[in-house]
Amino acid sequence: MSLTFTVGDLTIHRIIEQETTFLAALEMLPALTGELLAENRSWMQQASALDADDVLILCFQSYIVETPHHTILVDSCIGNDKPRPTRPKWNMKTDDTFLRGLAAAGFAPEDIDFVMCTHLHVDHVGWNTKLVDGRWVPTFPNARYLFAKSEFDYWTEQNAKTPVPPFGDSVLPVVEAGRAEIVRDDFQIGDHTRILPTPGHTPGHVAFTFGKAKDHAVMSGDLMHSPLQARYPELSMKFDVDPAQAAVTRRSFLERYCDTDTLCCTAHFPSPSSGKIRRWGAGFRCDAVAVN
After folding, report:
1. Which position among 84, 210, 220, 241 has the lowest Cβ density within 10 Å, counted as fewest Cβ atoms?
2. Strands 274-280 and 193-197
3. Which residues of 247-272 are buried (b: 16+ CB within 10 A; e: fewer)?
4. For 152-177, how does the pLDDT look when each residue is reduced to its tens digit (9 = 90+)?
């Protein structure tokens, strides 16, 4: 299984917290038909993206990107000790899988310079904080946590109407600790890290591009969850805030990187999760690459 990639002057590490079944394909992708699923069942199973009961298999992971200047964590997975009653595999979790993965890649939490979240859903902010003496404190004590302004504003508004637990336990404590920076879409870190707006899944969802002078790698976040959505970009998932916008964004993103050398690092595709975007009929696929 590929956990480390080298591209340009970047080294990219996958930190896997869970790789497991999630939801039935027909439930998660409302526009998917039984006939279309049957046509694609064989290759999806061969890719370990679908089990024998037609349940999608997803990977829940972070990426650490080492640039010549910084060590950056993209998305922080699920987290421990957090009440997530609708997701039994995430609820009040106490395992050390994520932190062991971090250590195996050669990092301590203190080594991270920036934490960047593609969006603020529960499985992308969980390790932003940890529980210490009954309080949520930043897991990465030396990091600046970057939140896209449109995304942060959206969840601030939602949380004011009805409390959003992951916002309350995994985002606001970072703000209160003075470690957060709310940034606009033109924000850059040095000459290697940029924001690419990719709205639809959430209103302020962003991707992150890495590389000097060109996009050597891109972190796509929840722009797509399954290889089936690359094959058929019009298939939006049930948790997309704006399914129509998500479909337009997804196709635009795939067209942008199709047949380029940019390494696309997806949040949830099954291992190896990263590859080069190539055309496949009217759609696309993410071809795995040899590990350097």
Report:
1. 241
2. unpaired
3. bbbbbebbeebbeeebbbbbbbbbbb
4. 999 999 999 999 999 999 999 999 99
> Residue 88 CA to chain centroid, in angstroms?
20
Non-local (6+) Cβ contacts of 261 within 8 A are 216, 276
211 phi-psi bin (left φ>0, alpha ψ -120 to 50, beta other) = left
Q: Determine the residue type at 63.
A: Y
3-state secondary structure of 182: strand
Structure tokens belonging to residue 198:
């990719």
The residues with which 144 forms a beta bridge, in sequence order, are 114
Measure the CA–CA gap between 88 and 235, rounded to whole angstroms: 26
β-bridge partners, 146: 116, 181
Helices (H) and strands (E) in the chain, counts: 9, 16
CA 13/CA 7 separation, integer angstroms: 11
Shortest CA distance to 188 belongs to which of 217, 212, 220, 154?
212
Place of tokens 């932003």: 128
Cis, peptide link before residue 83, omega less than 30° from 0: no
β-bridge partners, 265: 219, 274
Tallying the residues shown for the chain, one arrives at 292
**Dist. CA 280–CA 277, nearest whole Å:** 9
| Domain 4-288 fold | Metallo-beta-lactamase; Chain A (3.60.15)
| pLDDT digit string, tens, across residues 25-42 | 999 999 999 999 999 999
